[in-house]
Amino acid sequence: MNSRLLSHSVRSDQVLDCIHDESSGEEAWATYWTRFIQQQARQPACAVYITEMWDAWDLHHFRHRRTLDHRQPYGVGDVSQNSHQKGQLNGNRRRWARC
Question: How much is the pLDDT for 81?
């Protein structure tokens, strides 16, 4: 992450960040940057909510468990990959993920 961007972001009361967009990468990369950003945000006492957007379109896919089951260090879960689902199926999967 650009240090200048980070220095501006943590001046806010709250920051919401997604490490990757549609990632199929290793969880360690996201975990490292999540903890780094949270550490930097402690200085100005900024509330930081970070997530990872996994590429799998099925919310039941094991990759989504990486963030949905670990609200620490991740503060939120990203279910936007489910938005291709329509109607009741979309709602049911979002409720299942409880984000």
Answer: 76
- Residues 4-23 have a mean pLDDT of 75
Give residue for tokens 């957007």.
53
**Of how many residues is the chain composed?**
99
Which residues contact residue 22 at a Cβ distance below 8 angstroms, ignoring those fewer than 6 apart? 53, 54, 55, 81
Other C-beta atoms within 10 Å of 59: how many? Answer: 23
pTM, 2 dp: 0.68
Domain ranges, ordered by start, for the chain: 13-97
Cβ 97 vs Cβ 68: under 8 Å = yes
Instruction: Measure the CA angle with vertex 80, ends 56 and 18; round to 5°.
Output: 90
With a CB cutoff of 8 Å and minimum separation 6, the contacts of 43 are 10
Q: Residue 2: which pLDDT band, with cuts at 50, 70 and 90?
A: low
